[in-house]
Amino acid sequence: MTDDDSVTATPAPEPAAPEPAAPEPATPEPATPEPAAPAAGSAPEQSPAVPRPASRRLLRAGAATVAAALVGVVIGVGIIKTRYDDPAPATAAGPTGAPAPAATPTPYGAKSNGSHFGSLRDLLLPVPAGFELGPDEGGYGNDTEIGAGQISDELDAELQQIPKDKRDKLRSYWEGLHVKGTGVRTYRNDGNNLVVGLRLRQFNQQEVQRINEYTAVFTGDTGIFRSGPQIPGHPEAHCYLMPAPPSAPIDYLECSAAEGDLLVVMSVEGVAPLPKDRIVGLFTMQLDRLATPGASV
After folding, report:
1. In this predicted structure, what is the pLDDT of residue 166?
2. What is the DSSP letter of 102?
3. What is the rounded CA–CA span in Å between residue 42 and residue 156?
4. What angle, 0 to 180 degrees and rounded to 10, lies between the N-to-C axes of helices 164-177 and 148-159?
5. pTM confidence score
6. How far apart are CA 17 and CA 49, in angstroms?
7. What 3-state class would DSSP assign to 188?
8. How many CB atoms within 10 Å of residue 153?
9. Which of 11, 41, 52, 219 has an alpha carbon 20 to 30 Å from 167's alpha carbon atom?
10. Are strands 262-271 and 116-117 parallel, antiparallel or unpaired?
């Protein structure tokens, strides 16, 4: 990626590390089975809350359906996570009672050439009003950044299970992606009936664009997925709903967009019908935060 000196900037809360992108459609991540609907009559007069175990499905189910095209082996591998507490705990005062020194904000943002810098946790949408941090994504936590080195090590272990010619091809593809990392954050609404997962995957801009375009075509032309809402002001973004019977009590939606060197994926799981206006608002806020050169130091 070519650096550009044209940078805008804003203070960010805390530093962190990043996670990856995706390889070719040949080797998909195993799909997660569709969640079972809650038993009929289990909560008579109340809106059913989103089941906690579904949180793992939330971040995987939608993408698993198109895993071969969207992420392949490299994103599907098990990852070593780095967990952060948000907000950072206050430092205890020393014997003299002197205040702890304030942390220096870490710069983050976007250059005019579309390349983003700084922590992926800082680039992720902060928890908005009416939400709190959501359930953990598997064992990785709900506010996580995974670095390229960690994912590369896990990829090497996974690739040992396939023939050497395909292994070398995938490894070569991975190296060409110039993966920097992936950031994940989950959100749960106050009513406990909507769970949202946001992922930022940072890698080669051309591949980010290509994968996003392919996903738009794949989800639009196969007839498998239901059309989702448009994202005003972001023509590169597209949303689609997972296959589901009309009477299903829980619904699933996924949105994808390319912002420079970031593939942005939002997964949503909630009580049907989903509040599409609210979902569009969340995704718009995330994309605006990443806009070139909108994100700032």
Report:
1. 85
2. P
3. 46
4. 170
5. 0.65
6. 33
7. strand
8. 13
9. 219
10. unpaired
End-to-end Cα spacing for the chain: 20
Condensed to tens digits (0 to 9), the pLDDT of residues 168-183 reads 888 888 888 888 999 9
**Amino acid occupying residue 234:** H
Which two tokens mark 46?
Answer: 């109340």
- Chain position carrying tokens 């906690």: 52
- Report phi then psi at 245, rounded to 5: -70, 155
Q: Hunting for tokens 């950044």 — which residue is that?
A: 145
- Using DSSP's 3-state secondary structure scheme, residue 149 falls into helix
Comparing CA positions, the residue from 179, 161, 143, 157 lying closest to residue 71 is 179
**What type of residue is 289?**
R
Q: How far is CA 117 from the centre of its chain?
A: 17
Gap between the Cα atoms of 46 and 59, Å rounded: 26
H/E run at residue 181: strand 181-189
The amino acid present at 54, given as its one-letter code, is A
Residue 119's SS3 state is: coil
β partners of residue 7: 111
The distance of Cα 251 from the centroid of its chain, to the nearest Å, equals: 18
pLDDT tens for each residue of 202-232: 999 999 999 999 999 988 888 889 999 999 9
- The rounded Cα 115 to chain-centroid distance in angstroms is 18
Instruction: Quote the CA–CA distance of 136 and 138 in Å, as a whole number.
Output: 6
- Distant-in-sequence, close-in-space partners of 161: CB < 8 Å, separation ≥ 6: none
29 by DSSP, 3-state: which?
Answer: coil
Q: Which amino acid is at 48?
A: P
